[in-house]
């Protein structure tokens, strides 16, 4: 048990260092290519910090194919990760600094968060998520990325910079290398934390779904926590908020879909009537606190409210044992 605990601590350290590298490199790349911090957070950083969820889902799918009954880990992890991000992590970031969500974010990205929740609910309605439904989830995510590229002219900005070289002082290869190294460190740290937390939690004899919700999910969300707090400290609030919103779109669609494509999952239908509604309610509260014209974190009570939502959820789940 001591060995697993030490590896978890090492994982936390790696998450911290990896997030620093990722935020710095992403901020420099955004400047070089004329891309907003919010878009970088919604795309590059959100996918990067979701790699622990993607990796764990694919690995879980492989184990399901091998005959292991571990679908609950993947389903619970998505729920635990998303509820942690929209409550505890957003609340922690609000205590560190101030974030502002533009009206455009509310027109495109915030509705997409609720679409992701709705799709996660729908595929679980019959208690079994199929490979076809996994492909559907990934397709919806790719359409969303296409809209971001079209509306924010991401490809055009990159092409223009590559042609004209307006920011020659910023090396693309160096910053991309730093981002990749940071993301690799994040993945390794996430694996250390999640795998060893799973071992420790398993010794208490609780269900795979509960392990996913209360241990692996929050553990897999640690990269988002590290990036969110680092972004606030480095005056890259757009990256922080974009990464959190983006992860709440990426994980239910891309991360979960990737695992389902590998192997269909069984879906505990009890989650449909408590956990997903709580996730929806928490998201609605968070969205209200960041409504255009408001600045989440200006009043620190907003951070306390969001963190309290996570603590209430965790307490209710433990009471249900």
Listing every helix as H and every strand as E from the N terminus to the C terminus, the arrangement reads HHHHEHEHHHHHHEHEH
What strand order characterises the main sheet? 1-4
Q: Could you name the CATH homologous superfamily?
A: NCX, central ion-binding region
CATH architecture tag = Up-down Bundle
N-to-C CA distance: 23 Å
How many distinct folded domains? Answer: 1
Which fold name is given in CATH as the topology?
A middle domain of Talin 1
Q: Which shape, going by the Cα principal axes?
A: globular
Number of strands: 4
Please work out how many helical segments DSSP would assign: 13
Rounded average pLDDT: 82
Name the structural class. Answer: mainly alpha
CATH structural class: Mainly Alpha
- Percent of residues in beta strands? under 5%
Radius of gyration: 19 Å
Overall helicity: over 70%
Main beta-sheet annotation = 2 strands, antiparallel
Uncertain runs with pLDDT below 50, 5 residues or more? Answer: none
Overview of this protein structure:
The chain has 321 residues and is an all-alpha fold. The protein has a single domain, classed as A middle domain of Talin 1, CATH 1.20.1420. The protein is built from 13 helices and four strands. The protein has a two-stranded antiparallel ribbon. It has a two-stranded antiparallel ribbon with strand order 2-3. The mean pLDDT is 82.
